[in-house]
Write a structure and sequence with these properties.
It is a single chain. The chain contains 13 helices and 11 strands. Helix 1 packs across helix 12 and helix 11 crosses helix 12. Helix content is 38%, strand content 13%. The strands form 3 sheets. Strands 3, 4, 5, 6, 7 and 8 form a 6-stranded parallel beta sheet that branches. The protein is of the alpha/beta class and 345 residues long. It has a single domain, classed as Metal-dependent hydrolases (TIM Barrel).
Amino acid sequence: MVHQDGLGIVLDHMTLHSEAVVVDTHCDTLKCLLPEFTRPKDSMWEDRSNIGMGIKSSVGHLDIPRLKEGGVTCQVFAVSSERSRMPRHPLRTALEMIDRFYTECEANKKSIVPVTTHDEILQAKKDGKVAGLLSIEGADVIEGKVEMLRVFHRLGVRMVGLVHSLRNPLADGVADNRTGGGLSKLGVEAVEMLDRLGVIIDVSHLNDEGFWDVMDQTSMPVIASHSNSRAVCHHPRNMTDDMIRALADDGGVMGMNFAPSFVHPELATVQGVVDHIDHIVDLVGPKHVGLGSDFDGIPYTPVGLEDVTKMPNITEELVRREYSLEDILDILGRNHLRLIKEVCG
């Protein structure tokens, strides 16, 4: 139960979750819908190209029926290429993913709608639909042409991560960090273009030097769409306290990643995910943390977060830890909504 003194509000966690605007800022489901990413069969992504997103499935972590069951208002769908220093056909692959996204939205238009703004997300909630928003995970998809960011903006992309762990022409990633390099000249130009377009810059997957370089270059708040606290779980994909403070000082938001190796070195649970939320709230307050599951991009999940239908378990744990109603609503989605409104409109 949640009781808000002075307002007389008493809600159970399921009612609270269903009434909240819940935003998840990262999933890799579009990869699962392209056969080239799901072969050979030992790939971490399962081939769902013939299933699509409209049918409830036991394969993978999310589809539209499970998003609705899990109470997710807005799901951010990542667009990327093969994770490689020299990916094959990165631009074409990204365009194929975007085409599949819009094809799925059209085929399931009673249940999901593509969005690009804060108000469109709220309208989707009123209409009982899932809002789908596009992001880029690894700007190697622009093939060295910053102007392509304008094209992706026209196609509905409203969030861009410069790298996908490995070095590309814009920056170094966390898995390719020997030189300790920050942004290249092209990377700086990309940041400037994204600021002009009103596209959120995503610092997840950047190396530490790249993060600080982005913070120096951008004039807008940024997102770490699917990164946790390095103080709670020491992993290079997580953020140090100094990085979290800098992100918060500029109005940014972090989305908690459910990858077990980012949550806890031994046993990852839903409680472990909320431990990261606790640390960030203690550090910078409740206005700079949200959810960024990485569903369909992680090989296995924490106990209690087996797929998107388990999202209410986070709300239940926040209630159990006596977070206020306002703080819970912020963490579930209002913090991300505020960032989307400020940067994208």
